[in-house]
């Protein structure tokens, strides 16, 4: 490794991406240059190139930079080849077959959920959620399932600075109501989205854990509200919990429950 030649420009590009990924807010060119001890002239050229290619986005008014959509697309290509996606996909398909509803897999990214995979039954509802898109955590069953796996302090850290977007009249509107709902989720064993993200859609979800007992993702089943009777919800919740536990164990999780 000592004789390996390192391209300085390539290394600086990667350093910039790592730096921005670790920051909660966009950075100016001066902040980036200072943190990485890079000359302003070369930093400017690299940033402009990365913006042009879509790996960064810039705010012309504030003159700040943040990670761009193209970087997510590259990352998504990696995610589709990870153990998480490979292990979860057969279980999503099984959930779709057993429930007759749409099954989803999502992860948390920057305090939002990102849809990684879904399996749609022929007779199931078609939701607006598409792969690679984001949704607020507080309006979705998937998001609330992952949040419920964290202590309240972590929940505040993740989304405390975000606006409580109202996707529908039923969307949760403040942190206090969200924390109360997360406590109900832990006791219930699964989260629900009762027309909170889309009207006429009911969703229930559970977290998927990794070997470190951290929520790596969440799985859900979504269907038309009118079909989701209490008995049907109970059946779907049992299937979901069973599937999420199996996937979690394949990722190294060693417990027999999703919530204590």
UniProtKB/TrEMBL annotation:
Q: PROSITE patterns annotated for this entry?
A: HTH_ICLR (PS51077), ICLR_ED (PS51078)
Q: Which Pfam families match?
A: HTH_IclR, IclR_C
Show the GO MF annotations: DNA binding; DNA-binding transcription factor activity
Sequence ranges assigned to domain IclR-ED in this UniProt record? 70-253
Give the domain of life: Bacteria
* Keyword tags: DNA-binding, Transcription, Transcription regulation
Which GO terms are recorded in the biological process aspect for this UniProt protein? negative regulation of DNA-templated transcription
Which residue range or ranges hold the HTH iclR-type domain?
A: 7-69
User: Key word Membrane present in the record?
Assistant: no
Function of the molecule: May be an activator protein for the gylABX operon.
Record protein name field:
Glycerol operon regulatory protein
Q: Which organism is it from?
A: Paenibacillus lutrae
């Amino acid at each position: 490794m000592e004789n390996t030649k390192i391209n300085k420009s390539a290394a600086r590009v990667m350093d910039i991406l790592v730096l921005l990924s670790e920051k909660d807010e966009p950075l100016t060119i001066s902040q980036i240059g200072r943190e990485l001890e890079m000359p302003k002239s070369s930093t400017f050229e690299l940033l402009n190139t990365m913006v042009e290619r879509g790996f960064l986005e810039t705010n012309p008014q504030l003159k700040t930079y943040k990670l761009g959509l193209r970087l997510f697309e590259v990352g998504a290509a990696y995610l589709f080849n990870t153990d998480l996606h490979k292990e979860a996909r057969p279980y999503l398909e099984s959930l779709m077959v057993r429930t007759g509803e749409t099954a989803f897999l999502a992860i948390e990214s920057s305090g939002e959920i990102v849809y990684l995979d879904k399996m749609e039954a022929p007779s199931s509802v078609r939701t607006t959620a598409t792969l690679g898109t984001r949704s607020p955590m507080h309006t979705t069953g998937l998001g609330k399932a992952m949040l419920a796996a964290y202590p309240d302090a972590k929940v505040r850290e993740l989304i405390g600075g975000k606006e409580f977007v109202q996707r529908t009249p039923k969307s949760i509107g403040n942190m206090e109501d969200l924390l109360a709902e997360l406590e109900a989720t832990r006791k219930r064993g699964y989260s629900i989205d009762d027309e909170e993200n889309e009207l006429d859609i009911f969703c229930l979800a559970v977290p998927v854990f990794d070997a470190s007992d951290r929520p790596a993702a969440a799985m859900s089943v979504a269907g038309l509200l009118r079909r989701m009777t209490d008995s049907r919800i109970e059946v779907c919740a049992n299937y979901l919990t069973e599937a999420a536990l199996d996937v979690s164990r394949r990722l190294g999780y060693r417990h027999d429950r999703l919530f204590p």
